[in-house]
Structures are given as structure tokens and as C-alpha cells.
Hints:
The complex is a heterodimer.
Chain A: H1 3-8, E1 16-22, E2 25-32, H2 34-43, E3 59-65, E4 78-79, E5 82-83, E6 86-89, E7 93-97, E8 101-106, E9 113-119, H3 128-145, E10 149-152, E11 154-158, E12 161-166, H4 173-182, E13 186-189, E14 192-198, E15 201-205, E16 224-234, E17 239-242, H5 245-254, H6 266-279, E18 282-287, H7 293-305
Parallel strand pairs in A: 2-3, 3-9, 12-16, 16-18
Antiparallel strand pairs in A: 1-2, 4-5, 6-7, 7-8, 8-9, 10-14, 11-12, 11-13, 14-15, 15-16, 17-18
Helix pairs in contact in A: 5-6
Chain B: E1 8-12, E2 16-21, E3 24-29, E4 34-38, H1 40-51, H2 56-66, H3 71-87, E5 91-95, H4 97-102
Antiparallel strand pairs in B: 1-5, 2-3, 3-4
Amino acid sequence: MTPGAELAALPSWGDENVVLALPPCTVGLEGLSRGQRQAIRAQYAGFQGTGGCAPEAHIRCRVGRLPHPLAEAAEAFTRHGEYAPRIEPGEAGVGLVGYSSLAWLERRAGVAARAALAVAGEEELAQPFVLENFLRIVTAYRALALGGVLLHSAGVVHGGRAFLFCGRANAGKTTLARKAAAAGAQVVSDDLNMVMPGPGGWWVHPVPFTGEFGRQQPPAAEACPLVAVALLEKTAALRVAPVQPAEAVAALLVGCPFVNADSEEFPALASVVSDVAAGVPVLRVGVARGDSFPVILAAVEERVKHGG
Amino acid sequence: MAGEEGEMAVRLGRRVRHRAVAGDGVLVHLERGQVMVVTEVGLRVVELLHQGPRTVPELVASIVGEFEVDEDTARRDLELFLAQLRGEQVLEGVATAAAASAGK
């Protein structure tokens, strides 16, 4: 029996279902208690599926009850000071071991896939360190299976067009998101944004995963065409410069969480980020503390106008 | 693959992947999350190390044969590049048969 089948065979918490519309797919959570369903619906308002029927969801996730809490200490799941569930890629699927949860996602091309998620405590399921981490990983894998990526970035929409500002922790993503919001732009997310192929190029889709900036209710924007990817740096003065293709691909690879550590997914991931880098200007953008968002955006737009 | 006596061969680490991008190359260490950008020649070295263990003389011979560069320059640049790759922990050392017998 595969790890996924073992998890899916665990007793359920109840008969309730929730369908979440998380681009690029819908995730149906089956076997919930009423309380779990209510908590999830409240937490993911704005990302509810319209069908409401889990069997019709692209990803059918059976939610089960672990017989007892897991034994590993919380410290085992801490990396760089942050909670980090352990991802265990396998041939048929990807396992996820968290502080109080186990999960599994089928590795499969195309939209439909099966998954399983189990917790020992009823109220633990909707906790961000369980469900949101699970959904982040599911979304990253499904995006890649469908030719897109989930990218660490601050996503900003201005004039119906999306700009992504990528960077490692402390590169200034959340600061930029705050500046953008203060200037009247829509912030899609200051942490993770979904980039998928669409009409005429690449499109940014809102997902319910944010950093310090927080989630917008309702979601900040519909899907918008991606105009440019900015590799964000802190500098003494505003600076915008083009990036060589290999550098762009390297930066995008670093910015694709979960899947970029999975050897099975590397060929697909490298192919998708190469296509993104070939289709969208990738710029190195150095931002000084005092630079306003309109000034930053104008500098990026100017460079894009001249071909990146 | 035979190397010179006492010569250690190296190969690309098992958790390292690479890709050619517009003439250059990108090298990714899957576990460490490290990414390197390498030149066209660097990419060729990486490809050779991905195919299997190579000694420095073997790599130098390949580079001199495929690019317009003299042997001394190729060796000097290669040793610098390999040191950089070792620093990023993307190489694995492999004792060649000759090295193993020399150590007996």
C-alpha cells in the first residue's frame, strides 16, 4: 500500500466537503467535520469553488484522522527560524511530514490528481501551519504539472497589468507591497504568486498565500498579464538593469519553492522558467528606502518599453 | 575511466542538475538551494562531469579539443573553476583505478 493509500484509508472527521478554487485548479477536501468546514470556509473566503462538490474538484483530497499525535518535536520542522514541513518526494507522489500532520500528493501530469491529508486533532486542520502549507505545496506541484510556476514574489497590479518583484527574504518584497498599496496599486500577494501560461503570454493569478502584508478580502485582482519580473535588491539609489538569460533562469529557479528541490520535477521546472524568462523581461531592480512605488514602476516601465 | 596515476577523478554530485540557457549554463544544487550561472565552457565541463567521473587531464584535453584555447590556459582556468565548484559542494570525488592501485 502506498503512503497515500494508507493516509486515505484513515477514518474521516465527518461527511462535509469544501472545494477551494486555487489557480490553477480546484482542491476538494473530503471527509471534514462541520467545524473544520466552517473554519476553512472562513479562512479561504474569496477562494471558494462554485461547485461545492468535492468529487468534481481537480484534486480530491481525503482528510483523515491520525490515531495519535506525531512524535517528532516542533524543532525538527524549523529551518532558518521558520516552520518548514519536510517534503519527501517519491516516484508515485510527494509526501509531506509536518509537526502535527501527514499528507501526500499524487505525482501526475495534467489537472486531476489525488491527495490525502491527516491530522490528530480536529482543530489542527485549518491551522495555517497545516492546511496552508499543504495547499502551498499542492499548488506549486499542480502549477508545474500544468506548465506554470508558483513564484516567491510580491505581485502588484497596476492598470490591469501585473509586475512581480522577486527576491530572497529581506530583499524588500513586503516593503514594496506596502508602498504599492499606499500608491493605490493592487497587491496580489507579497509572498507567493501564481504564473501560468495564458492568452498572449504569461498571466499572474491570485492565490491565498501571503506574507506580512496579509491577505486581501476579496482577492486583490483577477488574473492579469505579466509585464515584467523584477529581481529586487536594496541599493543606495534606484537602479534598473537587464539580466542575462541564464541569470534570469537561475533567479527564477531559486524563487520556485518546493518543486525546486525535487529532482523528478527539475526538467519540467527548468523548462517552464526558461520559457518565462524568454517571454517576459526580467530586470534587476535596486530600490532605495526613499523610492516611491510610482517612481519604481516608472523606471521598470521605461526599461520594459525599451525591450528590457 | 582511467586517469593518470594518483589522479583523483571528479563528477557532478547526484543532487546537482544543470541546464543550458542561451549559450550559458545554470547549475542547481537541489538540497542546498544553491544556483550558479556558468559560461559556455563551464557548461561543457559540467556536462562532461555529469556524464561520468573525469580527471583534470581528461577535462583539459576535452576543452582544448573543443574550444580555441591553449593547454596551459585551459588547465589554469579549469582548476579555478573546479575549485569554485568544490566550494559550492557540487562535486563528488571518485578514486580512479590507477589512484586506488597507487595507494596500495
